[in-house]
Each structure stands twice: as structure tokens, then as C-alpha cells.
Amino acid sequence: MKPTAFPARLRLLALPLALVAVSAAAQPGDYPNRPIRIIVPFTAGGSSDVQGRMLGEQLAKLYKQPVIVENKPGAGGHIGGKAVVDAPADGYTLMLGSIGLHATYAVYKKLTYNPGSDFKIVTVLAEMPHVVVANPGIAAADLKQLAAQARREPGAINFGSAGVGSSVHMMGELFKIAADAPLTHIPYRGSSPALADLIGGQIQLMFENPPTTFAHIKTGKLKALAVTGKERLPALPQVPTAAEAGFPSYAATSWTTVAVAASVPDAIADKLNADIRKIVATPEFRQGLQEQGMTPVANTRAEAAKFVAAEKQRWEKVIQQAKLIAD
Predict the structure, then answer these.
(1) Which residues contact 314 (CB under 8 A, 6 or more apart)?
(2) 0.85 exceeded by pTM
(3) What domains are there in the chain, each with its CATH number?
């Protein structure tokens, strides 16, 4: 017996009702009324993870809803990025974005999504310089000695990163260009395993985010050669900037965003932007970022889009000059 066909007239009536239901579900009137996920596309314990958990804690207090931080590392952050894009476009899946997700994804030629158009950037959360850290066993005591050693022994100095195209990787590539230093890049699935190998002596160098380096520098497990920003870090006042160390053209910071899938309604993105900016404006949150070597940003959506576009243009020049390609 054949199943009864759904009458055409009823199908036509059902269609606008379905559209109304979808539209209503996407409206921000009662948003949020259930748990939110923040996807951190890198391993636990890294800088993005620290920021994601700080933000999640404050959003949970503000919204009186659970906020779950989920780490999805791999492919320079793009495994997590694709998960955000594939999630329902309802504003309940956020992402801690990075240079790798927004500005250097051109190194990946086989991505199954387009980071340039598939994300909606809610805000730039924070900005920070990196710290050039070395295993204590390396002979170089400063950046000039490091560059000289790399030129003297091509391929002998390996630097680790959180993955191809990550900010930790790009800082190293920028230094290679600025110092004409033939370092060898070793990508990992996040900064945490790379740091473990750096401390263990399997690699010699990293251009790492500040928060994960402070304790190791203090205990002598790592030695800091320079910071990549234009000013010294208050937490590492004895460590010179790259310019002070003899490389005035080498200055860069990394940054993190809060982003959602591009199809999330603007009204929800605007609400998230306003609420996150309120959180970042609090003395407690700002102090938490600053203690980790980060500068709070929390700009408007328009300002964030303009900033990211300029950074993408800058880093694509490095990608082209270094001829970077990832599988």
C-alpha cells in the first residue's frame, strides 16, 4: 500500500509556517535561553584557551546560562572553525578566532569551507605580542646570536608552532624574513605539545603567546630572547623588544576574535558584541587579560572587520614571500 501523499495545498500552507518558525528561532528576543558553546580551535592550556575560559565564565554570569568551552584542535585551527560554520546559525556556538582562522588561511589549499566569508566577526577580543623563547641548551643568548647561529648552521634550529598558518607559526616566518635566518618549522596540533617538546629539547625555539611562557621562564625551563611588540611586557621587564635586540623591522602582535557563523542574524551578533564589550570594560576582566600579557580591545563589529581585513593583507604578503603551503 502506497503512503498517502501530502496534499499540495497543505504543503504550500506549511512552507510559510516553517519559514516563520525558522525566523522566530533566529530572533534575539529571548537569547540566550539555553547553554552556549565556545569552540577554541586549539589545545587546552594555550592562550586562546585561557581567553575562552575567561570569557565563558563571565558570559555565564551575565546570561545565567551554562557556557561550555570545547577544544577542537587541528589543521591550524580549521577543524574547530569548520565545526562553528557547520553548527546551527542560532548564536549558541561561538568561536575564539585567531590570525590563523581569519588572516592566514590561504596557506591551506584544500579547505572545505571559506573562512573569509563563512565567519561573522563579533569583535576583536584582545591583542598581544609574542615571546621568542628558547630551550636553555641553545647557545644563542639574544636574537642576533640566534640569527647568526641559524645562518652558520642552516637547518639546525627548529621552531615549533600551534600549526601551519597559526600566529605562532607566522611570527617565526616573519623573523626568518627579517633576520635572513634559515630556521626549520615544526608544526604541532596546538602550542601545548610544542611547548612540551621545547622544554624537553626536541625543538629549540618558539615564538609563543605570553601566557603559556611566563611560568617556564620564571623557573628557568625556557629562556626569553625578545618580545615581538613595540614595547616591553610589564611581566617580563628585563626582556628586550626585537627592535631593541637589533631587528627594528620585526614587530608584530597576534590577536583573538569572538566569531560566529556568517549566517547568524546580525541582531544576535550585535547583542553579543554589546555584551562582550561590557564584560571586557570591567576592571576584573581587563586585569585578567593584562596579567596574561594581553591588551584588551573589544571593538565594534565594523572596526573589527576593518582591522582583520588589514591584517589579512599584511600576512598574505608573508605567505607569498615565504611560499607557505599546507596540505
Answers:
(1) 103
(2) no
(3) 34-128+254-322 (3.40.190.150), 131-227 (3.40.190.10)
pLDDT (tens place) for every residue of the chain, 327 residues total: 444 444 444 444 444 444 444 444 445 678 999 999 999 999 898 889 999 999 999 999 999 999 999 999 988 899 999 999 999 999 999 999 999 999 999 999 999 999 999 999 999 999 999 999 999 999 999 999 999 999 999 989 999 998 899 999 999 999 999 999 999 999 998 888 999 999 999 999 999 988 889 999 999 999 999 999 999 998 899 999 999 999 999 999 999 999 999 999 999 999 999 999 999 999 999 999 998 889 999 999 999 999 999 999 999 999 999 999 886
Cα within 13 Å of Cα(70), Cβ side:
18
Instruction: Give the Cβ contact number of residue 24 at 10 Å.
Output: 9
- State the alpha helices, DSSP H only, in 98-206: 99-102, 115-118, 143-152, 167-179, 191-200
Spatial separation of the C-alpha atoms in residues 303 and 317, rounded to whole Å:
22
Amino acid at 59: L
* Integer Cα distance of 127 and 110 in angstroms: 29
